[in-house]
Please model this.
Amino acid sequence: QQQVKQSPQSLIVQKGGISIINCAYENTAFDYFPWYQQFPGKGPALLIAIRPDVSEKKEGRFTISFNKSAKQFSLHIMDSQPGDSATYFCAASRETSGSRLTFGEGTQLTVNP
Amino acid sequence: EPEVTQTPSHQVTQMGQEVILRCVPISNHLYFYWYRQILGQKVEFLVSFYNNEISEKSEIFDDQFSVERPDGSNFTLKIRSTKLEDSAMYFCASRETTGAGELFFGEGSRLTVL
Model:
């Protein structure tokens, strides 16, 4: 019930292309869905987050699409750049209780020049 | 920019030894967390801490683990008797408030148990 499933495990995209990473969750009590970016040797850093009262959130080249009925959300990276090469984790939590983040398995994104 | 700092960056220890990992959360933050990441795997929650007590812990956080906020700035994770499977990157994180606050992670402490 606490799991968050993420796919694909790895993704290779050409510079300028669109990167899409998908996540699905089980627990309908989750009400906060962040995406974290992690570079090698660094801690995860918040990239963008969404709450279930909206279906889409955009910040620059990064967009989260959220489908509450399907219990799925995805990250779209437009005009992908080599500097975007990192591991991306989706996560979910019950924000109102300040509870723990449950992370997906991670997607290693490589953007080729 | 304020940040969560962790020490040591890397610790190598023998199985059965005690290890203490240290963290200095962002100064005005009230909620503190430890997560771990086994190499190549996802980030897993260990424990959350608020108002000088554990507010939630995972099934991973057994009796071998303990947390403490010994003073106004440090937040520590102690592993009493390390096992091979404790080898992982341990991340400290902090949050200003519950609810809408962003969770800030440190750069991690890599623990290698031999």
